[in-house]
TrEMBL record:
Record-annotated Phosphodiester glycosidase domain positions: 263-420
Ranges that cross the membrane: none
InterPro entries: NAGPA
Species whose genome carries this gene: Micromonospora noduli
Keywords on record: Signal
Protein name: SPBc2 prophage-derived uncharacterized protein Y omE
Pfam family, one: NAGPA
Domain of life: Bacteria
Keyword NADP part of the UniProt annotation: no
Residues spanning the signal sequence: 1-35
Length: 430
């Protein structure tokens, strides 16, 4: 389940971080069969469904649990309505007090492209992982992996949270595996050190939108409609997005290397660029003239407190919180298909600080998937005091020990990024 992003510029400023209470329940490590709802784990479907749970230890403090609720395949025409299931859930539980590795977010060779979850897990040398952020997907053929919301990797903010009310973030510190769920806000600016002229920075690593009334104008400086001001880093792609507008390339000290009245260039190591469209094109050239620039980029929680972008901090985006402080908090989705039964990926924390990653297979007679309400009930039953709904649908995937653990609805989809658990201490990078 990906997010299509027409009008992406309208989504790019976020709300606030509700810092989650770290929370928890330990999943059993002894294989067991449960035949009634009273002793079962999952509070979905009819009470008389048989539920079978098996678990195995992947490493110290890391457990993989497989739950099947319901024994009979669903009729193909009842997948969205049946109360008999079946449901197949895979759960990865990480106990920071015992685990010797670290959890982090990772993407492929560059942020703008996509890779399968299994490939991201293997490439990072991870023991296990799940798909994570919502990403641009088919809305951008050139940059399908572009995150639609927060993308924080090793302390580098490569995609800012949006203002979309439904966006919720999952943030983890790879140095200690402590995780937070909630909503972040972001602000950024460009400031000339000599003249002190300031221009708001609107986005990070998203192709700027050319104003509708200026698409025919080769020189955007003549445009009277506001456009976008965007920072690009080398992690986004080997070449910055091409098109009308202006581009200013900066060295590692923030000093101007070159300017151009069209967009699209290759960035050398240590360089970043600023692109602008519409009337902001002229404003950027004015601010960038005569001197070096300071770029500010600030994440903050709901109380306005700055979240330091230190090494080891990772963050991904989801849509809608599932639980908060142990309570189900899913909004009313009405008839929106997003809230109906789909494959799901969940990230959350337990009261005693464990991190739980889970997938629910869906759109299949062998596992029907869950509504967002049912997803929250599963998260709560698995002990997630604070949990978020990550990208799902065809993106839902979990890999462990080099192989795909779940059964995606169709061929495994290439995705924007993944949350992965890697053995050993964190030593930098994404």
């Amino acid at each position: 389940m990906t997010v299509s992003t027409p009008g992406l510029s309208g989504l790019r400023r976020a709300g606030a971080l509700a810092v989650a209470t770290l929370a928890a329940v330990a999943l059993g490590v002894v294989p067991s069969a449960r035949a009634d709802a009273a002793s079962g784990t999952l509070p979905i479907g009819d009470a008389d469904l048989t539920e079978v749970t098996t678990s195995r230890v992947l490493a110290d403090g890391v457990t993989l649990t497989h739950i099947v609720r319901g024994t009979e395949p669903a009729p193909a025409d009842q997948i969205n309505t049946t109360s008999r299931g079946p449901w197949v859930v895979n759960v990865l539980t990480i106990d920071p007090r015992r685990a010797r590795g670290h959890l982090k977010a990772t993407y492929g060779p560059n942020l703008g492209q996509v890779e399968k979850t299994t490939d991201l897990v293997r490439a990072s040398g991870a023991l296990a992982g799940v798909n994570a952020s919502f990403f641009t997907f088919t809305a951008s053929p050139l940059y399908p992996g572009d995150p639609v919301g927060l993308g924080l990797y090793g302390g580098r903010l490569l995609s800012e949270p949006t203002t979309e009310p439904g966006e919720v973030n999952f943030v983890v510190d790879a140095n200690n595996n402590r995780a937070l769920t909630g909503k972040l806000t972001w602000s950024g600016s460009v400031r000339n050190r000599r003249t002190r002229a300031v221009l708001p920075l609107e986005f990070i690593n998203h192709p700027p939108v050319v104003p509708a009334g200026c698409t025919a104008s080769a020189d955007q400086r003549a445009c009277t409609e506001p456009g976008d001001v965007v920072q690009f880093t080398p992690e986004f792609d080997s070449v910055t997005p091409a098109g009308v507008g202006v581009e200013v390339v900066l060295d590692r000290l923030g000093c101007v290397v070159r300017t151009a009245t069209t967009r699209g260039t290759t960035l050398a190591v240590g360089q970043t660029s600023l692109q602008a469209t519409g009337r902001d094109a002229g404003a950027l050239l004015t601010v960038a003239s005569r001197g070096c620039l300071d770029l500010t980029s600030t994440l903050a929680d709901q109380r306005g407190r700055k979240l330091p972008l230190r090494s080891g901090l990772f963050g991904v985006n989801g849509r809608h919180p599932l639980t908060a402080n142990g309570q189900i908090v899913v909004p009313d989705g009405g008839s929106d298909s997003f809230f109906a039964r789909n494959p799901r990926t969940i990230a959350g924390t337990t009261r005693d600080g464990k991190v739980v990653l889970a997938t629910i297979d869906g759109r299949q007679t062998t596992s029907v998937g869950t509504t967002l309400d049912e997803t929250a009930a599963v998260a709560q039953a698995l002990g997630m005091s604070d949990a978020v709904n990550l990208d799902g649908g065809g993106s839902t995937a979990m890999a462990a020990e080099g192989t795909l653990v779940n059964h995606p609805s169709g061929a495994e989809r290439a995705v924007g990024d993944a949350l992965v658990y890697v053995e050993g201490r964190y030593h930098g990078g994404h």
